Amino acid sequence: AFVIVPWLYYTYYSDLEILRDHYHGMRQWVDYLTTRTDATGLVVREEPNGWCLGDWATPARIELPEPLVNTCYYYHCADILSRVAPLVGREEDVSHYEELKRKSRAALQHVYYDDAVQRYWQGRQGADLFPLAFGMTPEEHSAGVLASLVANVEKNARHLDTGILATPLLLEVLTDKGRPDLAFTIMNQRDFPGFHYILNQGATTLWEEWDGRGSHSHPMYGSVIRWFFKALAGIQPDPAHPGFKHIILKPTPCGDLTFVKALFHSPYGRIRSDWEIKDQFIWDIEIPANTTATVYVPAMDRAQVTFSITEGVRFIRQEDGRAVYTAGSGVYQIRSDIRKSGH
How many of the other CB atoms lie within 10 Å of CB of 118? Predict the structure, then answer.
């Protein structure tokens, strides 16, 4: 958290001070993890009497090897620091963190990746998920590992078997890799383990454990709300232009959803994304003053798309079933003929 939270804060609010103030401590954390590695490069050791949770609060007994989870987060933290270093005037540190990334990726592949079945460890969802989510899986193996992840979700009757760390990543990876239908189904399961299962037990707050043990007012699984904003509504920050100076608007219609309404208060003002499906995909967006956005419209062809205001709107490309545009600040209504879009 000491590494990840400042980076996210910078991404969402463009506050370099938080990175400058905490860069030394962020470095210390990664340096400490380096002292916890074994000869292969996996993070395996804890302090005396320390305890490591791995992917905590999975529906069944914790089974993921803690070194697998530890090493993935070690890589993730080093990756973040490789991006933070030049922002705070420490360009000379970048090569150090790139080397840590290389070693930890190689160690994970060597110890946990099974090339014969193209999966990590025993193919539990989290085992395949962490390397995919953090970009550790070599490109030539990504399709196979994704197939293993999808197969495990299907084998598990389209339920999650992930804990508090992997669950939000599960939704985002499935969506980014072209299976938002699975993410949507996981979020809508009525039986154990699922959010509706907890609701059906009379819960008015989130539980710590799916079976009701422990706290009955716990925020851990609330992390899935990120998927609602980033995937369903499509409101995403652009790390290359932090603080929503440039916005990515990329909604993902899925399941039997017929509408989504979302509002995010950025440093520049309101970002709104409201869509509904009737005979067309009708999308109302609001881009605040002094910002720009890349707008991904569900459509197989730009000919299916109309903007209520065309001034300042420019078509860029066609990509993965979306027509992609740039747009300046303003309020737009966008229509797309979904009957021809394949969505």
Answer: 18
Contacting residues for 62 by C-beta, under 8 A, at least 6 apart: 53, 54, 55, 56, 163
Buried-exposed string 83-111: b where 16+ CB fall within 10 A, e elsewhere: ebbeebeeeebeebbeebbebbbebbbeb
- Which is nearest to 37 in space by CA: 81, 73, 5? 73
Strands 281-298 and 269-277, by their bridges, are: antiparallel
Please give the C-alpha separations between residue 298 and each of 55, 78, 185, 330, 343, in angstroms, as whole numbers: 35, 35, 20, 20, 7
Q: Are 77 and 4 in contact (CB under 8 A)?
A: yes
Contact 234, 254 (CB under 8 A): no
> In angstroms, rounded to a whole number, what is the distance separating the alpha carbons of residues 248 and 293?
6
DSSP state string for 299-327: -SSGGGEEES--TT-EEEEEETTEEEEEE
- Convert the pLDDT of each residue in 169-221 to its tens digit: 999 999 999 999 999 999 999 999 999 999 999 999 999 999 998 899 998 89
CB 190, CB 200: distance < 8 Å:
yes
- The one-letter amino acid code at 282 reads I
* Pairing of the two strands 305-307 and 259-266: unpaired
DSSP secondary structure of 27-91? HHHHHHHHHTB-TTS-B----TT----SS-S-SSS--S-HHHHHHHHHHHHHHHHHHHHHHTT-G
pTM: 0.93
183 close to 230: Cβ distance less than 8 angstroms: no
Q: How far is Cα 64 from Cα 274, in angstroms, rounded to an integer?
A: 39
